[in-house]
Amino acid sequence: MTHRVFVSAGEASGDRHLGALLDALGSEHDLELFGLGGDRVRSHGTELLAHVDELSVLGFSEVLKRLGFFRSLLKRCVSEIEQRRPDLILLADYPGFNLRLARAVKHLGIPVVLYVAPQVWAWRKDRRPGIAQVIDHLMVIFPFEEALFQGFPMKVSFVGHPLLDHAAETQPGFREALQIPREQKVLALLPGSRPSEVRALLPMLLEGTQVLAREGVVRVVSRAPGAPEECFEGINAHVWEGNLASLVAHADAAMVASGTATLETGLHGTPLAVVYKVGLLNWLLARLLVKKQPIGLVNIAGQSDLIPELIQGDLTAENIDRVARNLLFDQTTREEQRAYLSNLSQKLGGEGAAANAAKVVASYLTKSGGA
């Protein structure tokens, strides 16, 4: 019995989480998949209407520049769903697009499951009633989120954080691959995955750590899939295109763009700082909307502000140098962070997110009967 499912992951992290969920579903269910995603989602035979490389944007102004593209894509997705009538609509994160899509197809009566909740704890709690109107089942990944959505007319399940399922997936021989001697300190620089993010952060991170590099610290820059190649050409640092977990697990410290990578770095116990910078207009709009501080997931997950954050105007070469030195050489800073980070996994509920999420999805497939 074949089950037709529309899927939507608009960013690299969503593609990875949704791919792991589909892995966990296994071969027990015969699926016909179509929608939005990346290489992980496509590996399950999904017919992609658009790839995540086309979808990743950062900030309000960048969304406005591509508004015509997203309107056209939304219209196409709605049309495909209306024609194919899937048994389930499975959305992963990417709320700006996915919630609009859910609203546009609500009249069809197809169950809609959202994996990873919008961050209402950071801004606009008043969105919750609207979310409940268009989502049938919300799978949340932070323990405290479950209570935030209780009392609204939709099912809510805490499934665990997907990063915990693959936090230990590291590759051996990291230093050997880059020919880094054991005695040298390694500083990982993670400028993000979106092109605009990399262009904003990488030059500043390189400038702020150049004195450390002259002093013998080895800088290793992570190049995420889809990050523009020209940003990494000719830089005086190693470029790592492999497993992110291998980089952060073997680094002595890391400077990490705000996002899920801060949490992944923290789960490996690597001392880190959160960095973030966008255009002035985006920043002013964000400050009007976002009330929650700090902004780094690694702090939010542990309900702490221990991990330093260099945000917007605070992201200067001088501050980067100062913070990176503390992370690399100050034993008190390193021990405090390691003690805090050692409890992160427990606070997030442990492993099993993909399997738990797959059970929720399987329950809807069983009800649908398939084609």
From TrEMBL:
Its EC number is 2.4.1.182. Coiled coil: none annotated. InterPro entries: Glyco_trans_19. The keyword Disulfide bond does not apply. It catalyses: a lipid X + a UDP-2-N,3-O-bis[(3R)-3-hydroxyacyl]-alpha-D-glucosamine = a lipid A disaccharide + UDP + H(+). One of its GO terms (molecular function) is phospholipid binding. One of its GO terms (biological process) is lipid A biosynthetic process. SUPFAM superfamilies: UDP-Glycosyltransferase/glycogen phosphorylase. Signal peptide: none annotated. One of its GO terms (cellular component) is membrane. Keywords: Glycosyltransferase, Lipid A biosynthesis, Lipid biosynthesis, Lipid metabolism, Transferase. It comes from the Bacteria. PANTHER family: LIPID-A-DISACCHARIDE SYNTHASE, LIPID-A-DISACCHARIDE SYNTHASE, MITOCHONDRIAL-RELATED. Condensation of UDP-2,3-diacylglucosamine and 2,3-diacylglucosamine-1-phosphate to form lipid A disaccharide, a precursor of lipid A, a phosphorylated glycolipid that anchors the lipopolysaccharide to the outer membrane of the cell. This is Lipid-A-disaccharide synthase. It comes from Eiseniibacteriota bacterium.
